[in-house]
Design goal:
- The structure is a single chain.
- By secondary structure, the protein is α+β, with helices and mostly antiparallel strands.
- The protein has helices at 3-11, 17-24, 28-40, 78-84, 111-120; strands spanning 61-69, 90-95, 102-108, 128-135, 141-142, 145-146.
- The strands form two sheets. A four-stranded antiparallel sheet has the order 2-3-1-4. Strands 5-6 form a two-stranded antiparallel sheet.
- It is globular and about 55 Å long.
Length: 160
């Protein structure tokens, strides 16, 4: 497995094969073969663009939800995580160490939509004992891409 190739693809998945080959000192055929093998093995799971949704009129609301879970015997947290990740509102699910068990990143059109989803869907899942919702107010960096641009933060700066 070529970790240098993976790092380059992770940084910019639109880099063409010829450029990747030059950067790695490989032939284009070697790069194509390595990528195909890593896709087949499930090492490369997909390719995504990082979108700064705040720059669009159709922006959405994101929240990080902490879930405390009572795991079922023999299943651990996998059963709950499998249920949670099936919802279209859910972007990410992580097993955590510390005070809570699962961290869930959720998106919705409004704060109310996210709150309703947490109350009606996540909190009612068997084994979920509590939730804590943290709304994302601004994204500064996502998937290793800085989102700070020339756009000004409309909240301003207030010093006490």
């Amino acid at each position: 497995m070529n970790t240098k190739l993976l790092k380059l693809i992770n940084k910019d998945s639109r880099t063409d094969i010829a450029t990747l080959a030059t950067m790695l000192g490989l032939t284009e055929a070697e790069v194509q073969k390595e990528i195909a093998e890593m896709e087949k093995e499930g090492i490369i799971r997909g390719y995504k663009a990082v979108i700064d949704w705040d720059r669009l009129d159709s922006a959405y609301v994101s929240a990080i939800i902490e879930l405390k879970v009572t795991p079922k015997a023999g299943l651990g947290f996998e059963d709950v995580a499998a249920k949670v990740m099936k919802y279209p509102e859910v972007e990410s699910v992580y097993l955590m160490s510390g005070v809570y068990d699962l961290s869930v990143v959720v998106k919705g059109k409004t704060f109310h939509d996210v709150a309703r989803f947490v109350a009606k869907e996540l909190s009612t899942i068997d084994s979920v004992t509590s939730t804590a919702t943290h709304f994302v107010l601004r994204r500064y960096k996502e998937m290793d891409v800085e989102l700070l641009g020339s756009g000004k933060d409309e909240r301003g700066s207030y010093l006490l």
